[in-house]
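re: that chain from earlier
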Amino acid sequence: MNMGDPFDFYDATISAGFAIRKGRSETLGELSPKPHPWLYAETTRVKLGIDFLYRTQVIAMEDSGVGVVSVRLAGFATIGMADGHIVKSGLKGLCSAYCDNFSQVLNIVI
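^ sequence. v structure.
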């Protein structure tokens, strides 16, 4: 997608499989692999320092139905992205918005 280094683009990244270490992009470990809601909550609280009281200021983008459910269980709004399987899974209704491309996302968040 020619977006450059993801660490320059994203505010925080997180992945499954390792214990949390300060300054690292890791998670609670194998007990909470993607798309567990803890990943979203952990990224928001630990990596970004956003208190749960401000969860209405967080928007997650997802292209999978399971991811949408996880975002919602974590307490955040979600923008569903086309070309995944959100529609096929019947979970489009859980999305706060549904977009075909990143330009549409920008129109929502800016």
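The helical segments are 6-9, 37-47, 65-74, 102-109.
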